[in-house]
Amino acid sequence: MTALTLSTAGAATLRADALVVGVAKGAKGPVVAPGAEAVDKAFDGKLATVLETLGASGAEGEVTKLPAPAGLKVPVVIAVGLGSVPEKDAAFDAEALRRAAGSAARALAGSKKAGFALPVASVEDAGAVAEGALLGAYAFTAYQGGENKLAAKDKKNGNGPKSPLAEVALLGAKPRDKAFKAAAERAVAVVEEINRARDLINTPPNDLYPESFAAVATAAGKEHGIKVQVLDEKALVKGGFGGLMGVGQGSTHGPRLVKLAYTHPKAEKTLALVGKGITYDSGGISLKPAGHNETMKCDMSGAAAVFATVVAAARLGLQVNVTGWLALAENMPSGNATRPGDVLRMYSGKTVEVLNTDAEGRLVLADALTRACEEKPDAIVDVATLTGAMVLALGHRTFGIMANDDAFRTSIHEIAEEVGEASWPMPLPADLRKGMDSPTADIANMGERMGGGLVAGLFLQEFVGEGIAWAHLDIAGPAFHEGAPYGYTPKGGTGSAVRTLVKLAERTAAGDLG
């Protein structure tokens, strides 16, 4: 991953391939942001004028490259838009800094080192710039180039994919200050795990399937002191995990339930996280139509987020117990696959009539939720690319939050907004439950079409133990980005919800959630 350093050099003396400065959108044109004073001086105080002449406005995401003038040790200056100038005495929003740093880092692909002289008025600002730059520098190149002679030739000729920016030198922070050092170390740990999640999401399904995902988790557990338990098909059948087996039995790659347990000797709270891990979703017998299955390798994004969060918690040494449950299966059609009309007996003992095999995520999550609740955690959060209905409701950049406790739902929403992940609290209307009544089983896996994302949440709620605060994050929209990259968001897997879950774990460790 891209290296991060807290530089002691000034903007005028730093030796690097480029220097990144901020520019904001003012009432009368672009305004040079704090941190760029030395650069503005090198332009004889006319940096804003030069930028305006080139068409720059300071709008968010805008990137303008300039040849550096005499007086700077870098050959290129990159001015990145921060959006509107803050109100008097107000600082730039952390998310604006994060996105600007990400845009600049993407523009610097192929460079060895760049200095980031964005506004850093606090430790939080430094952390935001570090996160944004490291997230923006991400690239998934595992299947590009290699021993392919044509690809190697393209790379030599400058036509192949560029390597990510190799080093981010953060200016304006205080390298010898413990708080700034801690913020930088936290950014590195969290982003490395987000990028690990992105790698897993982007890995093609012929290489990432339940068994191989479980192997990755096992290896990470050994590296970071996390206890890992893997239940294979035999153990799942013996244990009565009818949901996981029902979804996974149609594939040659059998399902797995992976438990990752990070514990701290002084922890007073336990947080359980459950992730949907459908490594490929064909829809099963209820086969998806063409145009809807090409990106279904991303249907394990919830499990990737949970995995990344547990490892990040271990790396940060958080004083809280965090247990992750990865419900892994591949949903395929075959002579062994579950059929619409079949009835599954779940781990909880409840029976479920399967009306649509493409509503499979809730089935694997139900088993994992029941199992997680047996350990009596203080709170439980499940994360899943669960419903297209949530995408219709909230779009591609916002995830929905449902919960059995209003205060818990509000806390998670506030945390998500704080860390820069767009989210929205959603209800669990009791009247929608009746639509899942089954004449054959205790409940059906489908209900009313309208409000389908809420129906899925109501189904999951049926498998949550009494007295346990529970929340459901439907990340179907933001988990996988199919458009052009923006800010620190790449094309492909995004690592959605990891920052929210890590902050939730930190809050729980600090006792801020009651």
Topology (SSEs and partners):
Elements: E1 3-6, E2 18-26, E3 29-32, H1 37-42, H2 47-53, E4 63-67, E5 76-84, H3 94-107, E6 113-117, H4 123-136, H5 149-156, E7 167-170, H6 178-202, H7 210-224, E8 227-231, H8 233-239, H9 242-248, E9 256-262, E10 270-281, H10 301-316, E11 321-331, E12 343-345, E13 351-353, H11 361-373, E14 379-384, H12 388-394, E15 399-403, H13 406-419, E16 423-425, E17 443-444, H14 452-461, E18 469-474, E19 480-481, E20 492-493, H15 498-510
Parallel strand pairs: 1-7, 2-5, 2-6, 6-7, 10-11, 10-14, 13-17, 14-18, 15-16
Antiparallel strand pairs: 2-3, 4-5, 8-9, 9-11, 12-13, 15-18, 19-20
Structure description:
There is one protein chain. The longest helix has 25 residues, at 178-202. The protein is 34% helix and 21% strand. The chain has helices at 37-42, 47-53, 94-107, 123-136, 149-156, 178-202, 210-224, 233-239, 242-248, 301-316, 361-373, 388-394, 406-419, 452-461, 498-510, and strands at residues 3-6, 18-26, 29-32, 63-67, 76-84, 113-117, 167-170, 227-231, 256-262, 270-281, 321-331, 343-345, 351-353, 379-384, 399-403, 423-425, 443-444, 469-474, 480-481, 492-493. Helix 6 runs antiparallel to helix 10 (301-316) and helix 10 packs across helix 15 (498-510). The strands form four sheets. An eight-stranded mixed β-sheet has the order 8-9-11-10-14-18-15-16, with helices on both faces. Strands 1, 2, 3, 4, 5, 6 and 7 form a seven-stranded mixed β-sheet that branches. A three-stranded mixed β-sheet has the order 12-13-17. 54% of the residues are buried. The model has no long low-confidence stretch (mean pLDDT 96). The chain is an alpha/beta fold.
